[in-house]
Amino acid sequence: MLFEDRVLYPEFRRRMMSADEAATLIAPGDRVGMSGFTGAGYPKAVPGALAQRMQAAHARGEDFRIGLWTGASTAPELDGVLAQAQGISMRMPYQSDPSCRKQINAGEMQYMDIHLSHVAPYVWFGFFGKLDVAVVEVAGVLPDGRLIPSSSVGNNKTWLDQADKIILEVNQWQPAALEGMHDIYYGTDRPPNRVPIPLLHSDDRIGGPYLQVDPNKVVAVVCTNHPDRNSVFSPPDETSQRIAGHIIDFLQQEVALGRLPQELLPLQSGVGNIANAVLAGLDAGPFKHLTAYTEVLQDGMLAMLKSGTLDSASATALSLSPAAMQDFLAELDFYRQRIVLRPQEISNHPEVIRRLGLIAMNAMIEADLYGNVNSTHVMGSAIMNGIGGSGDFARNAYLSIFMTPSLAKGGNISCIVPMVSHVDHTEHDVQILVTEQGLADLRGKSPTQRAELIVERCAHPDYRPQLRDYLARAKANPVGRHTPHLLDEALSWHQRYVETGNMRR
């Protein structure tokens, strides 16, 4: 297999080697920044070779683990193989791999779950220690050594800037026609030298299409030809369609009241089946000339671009099903004119999000009577994936919407509870809650007004009597009636589920 057309910088050609050889350049205890964001643009060969080295070391009785930093979740070929090799000591900032999750919840792997917008600046500040190695997938290398990014950008700019040693995976599977889709901004700095980010519209380009790298730090170039790992989304079911319908009705109402323009404001959407259902509903709805400023571009937005409902989309990564990826590759010239891929420190930047005035739509695990949201933990202590970018968007968006089915586990869990078992988004950052039962607009409401609205609009009828009873007795509590709670009962629903498998009384 020839890669001469992808590696045009002569010095890098002299550093080509196998993944096995490159993996020997990573030492036990290293902090390693790897590319990748939601199954796109992650290194495909070096992690597997590194996992084999780890397993061999463990067989000899030697400890071999690394600190693993990425953009967000990756794929089994990265997170999975390293976790199964017992090779990760600390993981950040987001994961969705079953093996990782199991080890984290068993206390065998440390995990730091942080806002995605914080990762790059905190690394620059030195808060997490020195980054020893970067392993970054690219689509190609130009004659002057600049890099063509692949299907995700994530934290790659920061890894390349901060790492002592750099291993590049040049993936021939990534289409060469990606060149020109990226906007890599190099204008950020540490305080007190920060300047405003000159991004005024969601499709603005404020940087250049290439990643820069110090050639002297590149110690290996590995050539690969492996596809991204793409997940199939389930077709919208009745529950997700009802959630989507409530959101679209609400947005139409906001337009009618003059609080939103006819073309709405830039959309941000989390990943998942409900999010795709909402996007499908918007595509079939009355809105035209929409824009998106989000972190992940998934099937629903691709369809909206193709139909003309969406004029442009800004993200840091692609997260497409196999069928959508085929369409993307077949129509890449069309999409390259409408999609901008940025570093996640820009796609998730709080100041930019607030200035653009986003409509943020994210999923949750549960919400409580007062609008506090848990989006990361089951029963308070078992991590699912992580907060990702939802906090970046929820705190700073023009509209902050959280959505979930009202029930889980066949009805044994109510997703509306007296008190959430873990707080990711406080009531101060949550404006709208939506389930298939209805939508609760919490803006301008006191805690008790929010509670009454959430019970009647969002809770499942099977659990409304219990919630009404709890709220009535809490209001009678003389200790404090601003945010009424019965502390001896507030988490009893979760405890009941742990003990009996059912939240019902």
Quickly describe the structure.
With 505 residues, this protein is α/β, with parallel strands linked by helices.
Protein described:
- The structure is a single chain.
- By secondary structure, this protein is of the alpha/beta class.
- 32% of the residues lie in helices and 19% in strands.
- It has 18 helices and 25 strands.
- The strands form 7 sheets. Strands 1, 2, 3, 4, 5, 6, 7 and 8 form an 8-stranded mixed sheet that branches. The chain has a 5-stranded mixed sheet with strand order 9-15-20-24-25, with helices on both faces. A 3-stranded parallel sheet has the order 10-12-14.
- The radius of gyration is 23 Å and the shape is globular.
- It starts with 9 loop residues before the first helix and ends in a 5-residue tail after the last helix.
- The relative contact order is 0.11.
Task: Give the SSE map.
Layout: H1 10-13, H2 19-23, E1 31-34, H3 46-59, E2 66-69, H4 76-84, E3 88-92, H5 98-105, E4 110-111, H6 116-125, E5 133-141, E6 147-149, H7 156-162, E7 165-171, E8 218-224, H8 238-256, E9 267-269, H9 273-284, E10 290-293, E11 296-298, H10 299-307, E12 310-315, E13 317-319, H11 322-330, H12 332-336, E14 339-341, H13 344-347, H14 350-356, E15 359-363, E16 366-368, E17 373-374, E18 377-378, E19 382-383, H15 390-396, E20 399-403, E21 407-408, E22 413-414, E23 416-417, E24 432-435, E25 438-441, H16 447-457, H17 464-475, H18 492-500
Parallel strand pairs: 1-2, 1-5, 2-3, 3-4, 5-7, 7-8, 9-15, 10-12, 11-13, 12-14, 15-20, 16-23, 20-24
Antiparallel strand pairs: 5-6, 16-17, 18-19, 21-22, 24-25
Helix pairs in contact: 3-4, 4-5, 8-9, 9-10, 14-15, 16-17
